[in-house]
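Hi all, long-time lurker, first post. I run a small reading group and we've been trying to get comfortable going from sequence to structure in the token notation. Rather than ask abstract questions, I figured I'd post a concrete chain and ask someone more experienced to write out its structure so we can walk through it together at our next meeting. Sequence below, copied exactly:
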Amino acid sequence: MATIGLTNLPAIDRTQRRGSIVLVLLVAFLLVAAIAGLVLVGRDRAESYILVLLAVLGMIGVFSLFAAAAGILRVAGDDGNPVLKAVADGAGDGIVVTDAGGRVIYANAAYRELVNAVGSDDVRPVERAFIGDPDVSEAVYRLLRAAREGRRLQEEVRLSGTRGAPARWMRLRVRPLKPAGSDARVTVWTVADVTRDRERQENVFQELQQAIDYLDHAPTGFFSVDAKGEVGYLNATLAAWLGYDLAEVGSGGLKLADIVAGDGSSLLTTIRGAPGEVKTETLDLDLMTRSAKKLPARLYHKVAFAADGAPGASRTIVLNRAAGGDAARAAEVRFMRFFQNTPLAIATIDKVGNYVLTNALFARTFQSVLNAEGRGSERSILAVAAERDRPALEAVIARAARGEGAIAPLDVALAGRAERFARFYVTPVEKESGDQEAAIVYALEITEQRNLERQFAQSEKMKTVGQLAGGVAHDFNNVLSAIMMATDFLLSAHKPTDPSFQDIMQIKQNANRAASLVRHLLAFSRRQTLRPQVLDLGEALSDLTMLLRRVIGEKVTLEVLHGRDLWPIKTDLSQLEHVIVNLAVNARDAMPNGGKLTVRTSNVSEADSRLLDYKGMLAADYVQIEVVDCGTGIPPEIVDQVFEPFFTTKEIGKGTGLGLSTVYGFIKQTGGFIYFDSVLGKGTTFRVFLPRHLPAAAEIAPPKPDVAQASAAAQSADDTGRGTILLVEDEEGLRGLNARGLASRGYQVVEAGNGVEAIAALERHEGKIDLVVSDVVMPEMDGP
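-- Answer (accepted) --
Happy to help. Here is the structure in token form:
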């Protein structure tokens, strides 16, 4: 240090109790006064006073002895625990204790040496010893404030050297302390010279900077990536190859997919190993520059796995294979580019099915399957197949290992919770000495193709069933119409007192029930006759609310939420009401113990419809109706059968199985869509999308006054029983009954068996036909 000979200086301790000269003089004065008093009182009377004085002094002496033994009195010069005092005095760090006024009451030798104190009067507190430097003053001020607030604090400050002395680093600590048995608070300061520690840190940092500089400017690229695919480090060489600025890379946000082309990143992030294993793989991939150009490279990818099997950050060396090279290297680069970027997942396997080499697409496609099943460390291709298809795949691999050719492709269900499929093409390879590869496997995922095939088959089945149901319903409807008309004639001929009247009524009621089923079949087959009209969906649902409350019963709470400014729709009001009621009844049956039924409406714009993940739904403007219940939900095994006709989960006699199929047929016939989402035990949501109605110019323009007047006059006229009606019906019996009924009302009836005959009848009567009543479905020419 600057002052020589201070290392052996004693510590300064002002905590010992000091004697008081005033108290000594006072005691001496009292004793002299007592002696003088004894002289004045006389010899005869002095003896008793002397005894009293000696007794008092004796009592004071005995009390002092007991007080000293009990620790109440301390003898001046008592230093407390000599071991603790020796530790503090000989500590390597400077220790100084100040009282509440900032006066130094203790300082060890190390502190005196640090502050260059010559004598005991030269020992200054910390705030005075290191004054002068602004940075040091600010740190000392923060320490003093912490001491006043009763907090501990530590600061490191740099002291500028004086008179050619080198600069020093000091670590200052402050700790408030309240000694036992005392109300006074003291502050303990610790001052340590950490110059050597700082120099050592700076040396280590410089060495680290030098090592990073060597790594940054190495002739090979280097990067590190974690298991999430985030690039933690990129050296300057690789950054220059890829066109990145190191400052941007250091700020974070660079992903492995940003610098590795295609699915190559999957090969690097899906490597699996045993706990504690260190794995190094050699990969030929295309890197992606910032300008989206490809850079062929060879990667030496090293990953260490922790004790729990979790992969750590990689250490990856990159060799640029685009710079120079012979024809063989160019051919190898071209082959690896084809291998890694092909749309087929490719892997080479040994004779038992273990991977030897895989391309990036194979790793991305099948590693997700293995991760989902918890078999990420398996190296066998058999692990990607579901249990039921694994023996078939194993047999195909065995055939390829024996060198058999012309192996047919094999469709395999993939392992995992999601239903996925892949088609495997297995080809044997010629073995060479030391070659582990026995076969090449090409895999193509066909999950989407399978789904499309299933949907197409379901659609064709529904279409076929609909055509069959529509044809049967049309013919059966003709028979029912004839039966119902015949019963009407019989009822008009029989009085209620007639014994046959009740039997005829029973026939009519059953015929009406059958006709209701026919209407359901016609709705499902989309061949029913609709009467579309422009509707305000909010008003239609408001009118239907009372009926819905009666239908769902008292156990179920109904909530109707109307969307704002709903667009108009054009549909058949009665059929729309039938849809809402049918969905509400199904929701009620799904909540046997009661619950809440919510009917919600909203607009769905064309942009929003594009975001909906519903297959087959065209992008357009729709008005949506949601029917939400909190019932038992739909089991997954019957999801595909919900809209099928005659399918029901209800007990025999409690459902026809035509409810949802009728809803489906009407929605499709209107040009809309219906979908549902269901969770077992939580409920089901049906969503109906009806196309928005945009009125044409003819609908907007008001009718002319003369046309409106003529229309009103025509509506006010009563033509009942007058006029000529053309009746077109291909069923002869039904046509005859209809003609008989119309004729009984006073109309003149012209009959036609089909559309061709009807046109001929119109020509014969030269426009004198007042009304045409026609069947819809007829041979040669239909009604419309």
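A couple of things your group might point at:
Confidence is low (pLDDT under 50) at residues 1-7.
The longest helix spans residues 447-493.
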